[in-house]
Amino acid sequence: MEGERRAPRARSCGLPAGGAPAPSPGVDAPLPGRSGPPALPRAEVLDLDEDEDDLEVFSKDASLMDMNSFSPMMPTSPLSMINQVKFEDEPDLKDLFITVDEPESHVTTIETFITYRIITKTSRGEFDSSEFEVRRRYQDFLWLKGKLEEAHPTLIIPPLPEKFIVKGMVERFNDDFIETRRKALHKFLNRIADHPTLTFNEDFKVFLTAQAWELSSHKKQGPGLLSRMGQTVRAVAMSMRGVKSRPEEFMEMNNFIEIFSQKINLIDKISQRIYKEEREYSDEMKEYGPIHVLWSASEEDLVDTLKGVASCIDQCCKATEKRMSGLSEALLPVVHEYVLYSEMLMGVMKRRDQIQAELDSKVEALTYKKADTDLLTEEIGKLEDKVECANNALKADWERWKHNMQNDIKSAFTDMAEENIHYYEQGFQHENRTRGLNEQKIKSGSGSCVPAISTLPFKTSTKKHAILFFFFFSSF
Q: What would be one Gene Ontology cellular-component term for the protein (predicted)?
């Protein structure tokens, strides 16, 4: 083997390659008509201070005309649109159920932190009991994530919520912040439990079952500080060296990740802006109810009409609050989770490239080195096995992740569409009731007409969500 690399042999990894079956046609297969990465509008064309201009960038994008799996003649009925984007339910075969609840604050002389109760119920034989209850802090979740990445470098590990959130919520121990983090940690553990490979990780089992002192003892069993520093230095050196020839399928995967990251970050930014604008509109609308009540005290002929308008506004405010709650709980967390996923995917690709770079360096050393060729040949054989296992694991987990991503994003936008439909139905009922009262007053000649509050501004926000939805899925 002078100057050239041996052709890789077929080998068995001995490790589950993501555990996901081959994707069925029409679900995860590449969409027809998309031979390369789609054109993506540059981020700087978005000026979020001009709302209509923001969305016109998306609506005029030529890539939006190619809806891939959607028919170009989209039905006009909202309900028929909802039916198009729903996945069929899969059979429930879970044997591990995890709940994260009851956050509790702890204050010591050194620090203040929050722990969360984790209840695990399982029917698996490898567990000593069918139910466990432990308490964990955020640092323990970070440790688990690190161990999973160490054991499975090319599997897509679910992301953890950020340690600090600077924008919109500065207080770490704010009730809303704690509840948001609790939900994110709950989803993190359940995504691991649903993963066909990660769910059987030994560190994951220890995390769910060991008491605090047992977990601390288990953490100390890992490699020492010097060993970890050496691994980090080698990883950095390999990343600086780079990969000479990345396989074509992983080049396509990397292009997908870059485009996905740009789009999901834009959607997260605009969704947050839409939520902020609607919250401001809702707060302003709440002021009009009391104003109409005070107004009615000085207009004897319009008492009933003005009180009817005030009642309509009050009902619209309640419907709006419910809708805003659905937006903050259903859409925003899902979109932001996949922003974090995009960062995780970049890390997975770097770890895969590091493994291949290590193999390339050994092959290059064998080319120019005459001594110890037998030892290098043996090392190259092991590294080829490692690269093959890493590639197979990533490819299988990649298809599984794409399916879940499409399912989650579509479900989030579908739920939002249903919330919008229900909201408008309620708004129209209240407006029609007030309009009918005004008409009765006019016919009887006992009063004048006062227009009811309109929900028209929210029609624009629904249009924005629809454009964001089609913008995102125009190329995936």
A: early endosome membrane
Burial class (CB in 10 A: 0-12, 13-18, 19+), 371: exposed
3 state DSSP class of 438 = helix
The DSSP secondary-structure symbol of 328 reads I
Q: Residue 68 region, left (φ>0) first, then alpha (ψ -120 to 50), else beta? A: left
Residue 401, Cβ neighbours under 10 Å: how many? 22
Q: Which two tokens stand for residue 288?
A: 């009009």
DSSP 8-state symbol, 58: H
Rounded Cα gap, residues 269 and 260, in angstroms: 14
Rounded CA-CA distance 420/400 in Å is: 30
CA distances from 435 to 293, 300, 318, 319, 454 (A): 17, 19, 19, 19, 11
Q: How far apart are CA 63 and CA 57, in angstroms?
A: 11
* Cβ pair 222, 366 in contact under 8 A: no
Buried b (16+ CB within 10 A) or exposed e, 271-289: bbbbbebbeeebeebeebb
Q: Burial code of 231-269, b = ≥16 C-beta within 10 A, e = fewer?
A: eeeebeebeeeebeebeeebeebbebbbbbbebbbbbbb
Give the 3-state DSSP-derived string for 208-261, with helices as H, strands as E and coil as C. HHCCHHHHHHHHCCCCCHHHHHHHHHHHHHHHHHCCCCCCHHHHHHHHHHHHHH
* Ordered structural domains, the chain, with CATH: 93-227 (3.30.1520.10), 246-476 (1.20.1270.60)
**Closest to 328 (Cα-Cα) out of 375, 376, 405, 271:** 271
> Model pTM?
0.70
What averages of pLDDT result for each successive group of 10 residues across the chain (476 residues)? 44 48 44 44 45 46 41 42 42 82 88 92 91 94 94 94 60 79 95 94 95 88 56 53 78 94 92 87 85 83 79 83 83 93 94 88 74 75 88 93 93 86 77 67 56 47 53 52
